[in-house]
Amino acid sequence: MLEHIVLLKFSTGTKLEQIDELIYRTKRLREWIPGIVDIQQGHNFSKRNQGYQVGLTVRFESGYALEQYGPHPMHQEVLAYAKEIGLVDSIIVDFEL
């Protein structure tokens, strides 16, 4: 199994409601993309967040599932929405469990 961790930073003009919609859309990816074992996303409340407002974890059953996730049309749709609402930076970490 693989763990995929993403931290997201948005522009100051991004509204809380837009981020909530992104979280809703992201969590639904499990319904459409094969190989996702678990997916969690939420608002970062840490005081050490360095400006990253949202955290995401996706657990995949295999490296192949992770490879298929990135280009999957539903993931690309969610990513496009994140950019549309003001995504300015992300940090991504992938590791084996």
Features:
single chain; 97 residues; alpha+beta
Give a brief description.
By secondary structure, the protein is of the alpha+beta class.
Find the structural class using helix and strand composition: alpha+beta
Give the CA-based shape. globular
Percent range of helical residues: 25-40%
Low-confidence stretches: none
- Give the overall average pLDDT: 97
Could you tell me how far the N terminus lies from the C terminus, measured between alpha carbons in angstroms? 5 Å
The proportion of residues in beta strands is 35-45%
Task: Output the strand order for the largest sheet.
Answer: 2-3-1-4
- What is the count of helical runs? 4
What is the CA-atom radius of gyration, in angstroms? Answer: 13 Å
Number of E-type strands: 4
Main beta sheet strand tally, sense and closure = 4 strands, antiparallel
Q: Write down the secondary-structure element order.
A: EHHEEHHE
Question: Could you give the topology of this structure?
Answer:
Layout: E1 2-10, H1 16-27, H2 29-32, E2 36-43, E3 54-60, H3 63-69, H4 73-84, E4 87-96
Helix pairs in contact: 1-4
What does this structure look like?
With 97 residues, this protein is an alpha+beta fold. The chain has four helices and four strands, in the order E-H-H-E-E-H-H-E. The chain has helices at 16-27, 29-32, 63-69, 73-84; strands spanning 2-10, 36-43, 54-60, 87-96. It has a four-stranded antiparallel sheet. Helix 1 runs antiparallel to helix 4. The protein is globular, with a radius of gyration of 13 Å. The protein starts with a strand and ends with a strand. 13% of the residues are buried. The mean pLDDT is 97.
